[in-house]
Write a structure and sequence with these properties.
It is a single chain. Strands 5-4-3-6-7-9-8 form a seven-stranded mixed β-sheet, with helices on both faces. Helix 1 crosses helix 2 and helix 6 packs across helix 7. It folds into two domains: about 60 residues; about 180 residues, Rossmann fold (3-Layer(aba) Sandwich). By secondary structure, it is α/β, with parallel strands linked by helices.
Length: about 260
């Protein structure tokens, strides 16, 4: 398997993948049904037949999370495929801010607008057992994936078809990771994002402001592109949200805007 790993690493590097060795190891471990740490304790036999199809998919720049079919997000391991965006580390900061704002509340009605595969809503449900989570999305495919993840995790999550208008029903907290890639930015993205992830969940502008205007909620938490953070914060202040603040992600980029009213 050492030779298989070496050859796989070379193929992925030629394909332009930034972490070819790591990806090769994760793909091989997945094909063997072991963890990455267990991989090197396995006998040095030939790679299993299932390794090559996985490698070819990654070589074509399909996101690693889609190839593996699952991805970690905070304490959860969620099913992932083309029906929704890959859960990302920066979005874990969104969950952190929601949990901080909900601290001390025994119950809270929380709405996730654009729930996608359910990462944000399910992580909140997992870490704040008193919260009652509802997720809405305009994509029936994304909602189907979110249902699968709710069943997979055993967490309670009400799912409905809908969008911004549902935020007007009255909630304790509304959260969203909306489309925020500008159309002119699309061609600059990595192929994994540009060619594979759902465009409707990626490309858009002004969604945060629209949601802030429509929401009837005490607490609002929004993921933003760094270039949007200051403008979204100003909009919240103009809409009479108090305690408006911006939180940076692990890379130091302004990523989350929140407010209270």
């Amino acid at each position: 398997m050492r030779e298989a790993l070496r050859a796989a690493e070379e193929r992925l590097a030629r394909a332009g993948i930034d972490t070819p060795r790591l990806d090769a190891e994760l793909l091989l471990a997945h094909a063997l049904g072991v963890t990455r740490s267990q991989l090197f304790a396995a006998p040095d036999d030939e790679a299993p037949a299932g390794f090559e199809p996985l490698l070819a998919r990654r070589e074509a720049r399909e996101p690693l999370a889609y190839v593996l079919g699952e991805w970690g997000f905070r304490r959860l391991t969620l099913a992932t495929d083309r029906r929704a965006l890959v859960p990302r580390p920066e979005t874990e900061i969104v969950v952190e801010r929601c949990l901080a704002l909900l601290a001390g509340r025994t119950e809270a009605r929380v709405l996730d607008v654009g729930v996608g595969g359910g990462a944000i809503a399910l992580a909140i449900a997992d870490e704040h057992h008193g919260a009652r989570l509802t997720g809405v999305d305009v994509s029936e495919e994304a909602l189907a994936l979110a249902r699968e993840n709710a069943e997979r995790t055993g967490l309670a999550l009400e799912l409905r078809t809908g969008g911004v208008e549902v935020a007007g029903e009255g909630w304790d907290l509304v959260v969203s990771n909306p489309p925020y890639v500008a159309p002119e930015e699309l061609d600059t993205l990595q192929p994994e994002i540009r060619d594979w992830e759902p465009g409707g969940a990626l490309v858009g502008d002004g969604f945060q402001q629209e949601l802030a205007r429509a929401a009837r909620t005490e607490l609002l938490v929004l993921e933003v592109a760094p270039r949007q953070a200051a403008a979204v914060a100003r909009e919240l202040q103009e809409l009479a949200y108090d305690a408006v603040c911006i939180t940076r992600d692990l890379a130091g980029r302004e990523r989350v805007v929140e407010g209270r009213r």
